[in-house]
Amino acid sequence: MILSIESSCDDSSIAITDINNYQVIFHKKISQEKEHNKYGGVVPELASRLHLIDLPYILNEAKKFLNKVSVIAVTNGPGLSVSLLQGISMAKSIAVIKNIPLIPVNHLYGHIYSLFIGEKDSFPFLILLISGGHTQIMRMKSLDDIILIANSIDDSIGETFDKISKMMGLGYPGGSIIENLAQNGDENRFNFPIPLQHSPLIAFSFSGIKNSVRLQIEKLGGKDKLSNQDKSDISASFQKSSTLHLLQKTTKIFKNSSINNFAIVGGVSANLYIRTKLTSLCKKFDKKIKFSDLKYCSDNAVMIGRYGIEIYKKQNFISPYEIDLLH
Ligand code: KG4
Ligand code: ZN
Fold first, then answer.
1. Is the C-beta atom of 267 inside 6 A of ligand 1?
2. Which atom of ligand 1 is nearest to the CA of 107?
């Protein structure tokens, strides 16, 4: 079995997965959302301290499986260094004591492998990663053949959901709050810009929409003057523009790619409006679409372990003593 640890941001998570059939034997995640909510975003020092408290409690629950664990995988970046170090430090200690291999996992590859939890991987894929830290499209032909096709030139989409929620005086994380409000909103009330609409650039940008939403909130008298309907309409109109942006750039890539499999991963891929619109686009282009299970869209240790299994199979190990943050 593989033990995996994820602590790159504000979720402390540990999983144990069967290496042979990819079945999840144990998974627990403690989210710090409530604690960061009062600050309107993640406070790194607080996140680190909460990992220090929560990870050992989760490990204690996983303890009964530890004698069956023959390898450990841990996220070593990208993420908040003070958070990552808590997970890495725990993983190193267990690996040294048990004298078993330790595999450092790039968090983004973990998100990609959230597609293959409980199952064998398959390629090629075009993958849209939409999370709090990233907005990217990658082409993946195999484990060792991943290229970045499109990236955000400024903010990520998840960060933009979070910032707009904060601008309206709502909580953190903003993604699901905005998605819920949008259900009762008029998506055509405000015309927020669709970024890079007339640009040939295959890239994403969200700072323009964010500023336009800020100006609209000011026009309506500031966040304290917003009615519930205003908040819903802003949410729906913002969700519409940012989704159209994803659709336009994905369309450009579809037109130039013969790869027929498309997948969406990352925390924002839990958004049902975005899922529905991308599913329709795939139908139009005759592409097959794949999502991660809703419970594995946001950060979790299961996806880290699932990717770790692939590295374990290659027996591509370095000494646990050498493992450091991803640079
Ligand atoms: O993948 P993730 O858990 O962490 C990173 O690797 O960044 O993604 C977290 C992001 C947050 O910005 C959160 O607001 C967003 O995912 N998110 C959503 C939804 N659920 C989470 N965004 C839009 N709609 C949602 N339903
Ligand atoms: Zn993530």
1. yes
2. 6
The whole-model pTM stands at: 0.97
206 C-beta closer than 6 A to ligand 1: no
The response to whether residue 110 sits with its C-beta less than 6 Å from ligand 1 reads no
Q: Ligand 1 pocket: which of 9, 296, 298, 300 to mutate (most atoms <8 Å of CB)?
A: 298
What residues in the chain have per-residue pLDDT under 50? Answer: none
Residue nearest to atom 4 of ligand 1 (CA): 132
State the pLDDT at residue 304.
99
The token pair that represents 72 in the structure block: 């450990």
**Cβ 137 vs Cβ 126: under 8 Å:** yes
Give the H or E element holding residue 304: helix 301-314
**Distance between CA atoms of residues 120 and 242, nearest Å:** 33
The pLDDT of residue 327? 81
Task: State the pLDDT at residue 285.
Answer: 98
The pLDDT tens digits for 111-159 are 999 999 999 999 999 999 999 999 999 999 999 999 999 999 999 999 9
Could you tell me if 13 and 7 are in contact, meaning their C-beta atoms sit under 8 angstroms apart?
A: yes
C-alpha closest to that of 69 among 298, 301, 321, 322:
301
Q: Which residue has the tokens 């408290």?
A: 53
Our measurement of the distance from residue 204's CA atom to the centroid of its chain's CA atoms, rounded to an integer in Å, reads 16
Given phi > 0 = left and psi -120 to 50 = alpha, else beta, which region is 266? Answer: left
How far is the C-alpha of 87 from the C-alpha of 54, rounded, in Å?
Answer: 11
Q: Which of 268, 271, 274, 296 should be mutated for ligand 1, with most atoms under 8 A from CB?
A: 268
What's the pLDDT tens digit per position in 88-118? 999 999 999 999 999 999 999 999 999 999 9
- The DSSP letter of residue 152 is B
